[in-house]
Amino acid sequence: MSINFDTKTFTDHLIPNFAKTVSRTPVTKTTDNVYGDETLTEGTPENISADFFRKEDEWIIDKIGLLQNADAIILVQPDQALNKDDKLTYDSEDYRVDKVVTRRLGTSAFYKVGQCFKK
User: How does residue 2 score in pLDDT terms, banded at 50, 70 and 90?
Assistant: First the structure.
């Protein structure tokens, strides 16, 4: 028996089946020209549907290295906006996206994974 697994199967079925509502607030980073201090300015929050796994949730993803010492990870559709420094709010806890990687299957974007830390 073989399993035909493609990007459409993952993004159309697996991500929505585990999806939670997460508030994503885009953040703009500016750097002071004189002192080099960074300022983060939050934009308008939006609710997105995404797979969000916290370290304290009893998932085995930590064993396969997805958390990489992060407090949480988020999996989103490849066309969903998700950027470094975005603020995520889930279950009344705030997280900051530290790293975003687009996973690919061949040349097709499979999903995006964001590594998150509590604020």
Answer: very low
Domain harbouring 75, CATH code: 2.40.10
| CA distance readout (Å), 24 to 27, 77, 108 | 9, 14, 25
What is the per-residue pLDDT across 58-75, written as a single tens digit (0 to 9) for each?
665 555 456 667 899 999
What residue numbers bound the domain in which 41 lies?
Answer: 7-118
Asked if the structure places residue 2 within a domain, the reply is no
Counting the structural domains of the chain, the total is 1
Give the type of residue at 61.
I
DSSP characters over 1-60 = ------HHHIIIIIHHHT-EEEEEE-EEEEE-TTT--EEEEE---EEEEEEEEETTS--G
Residue located via tokens 């989103």: 76
For residue 63, the Cα-to-chain-centroid distance in whole angstroms is: 18
Which SS3 state, helix, strand or coil, does residue 80 take? Answer: coil
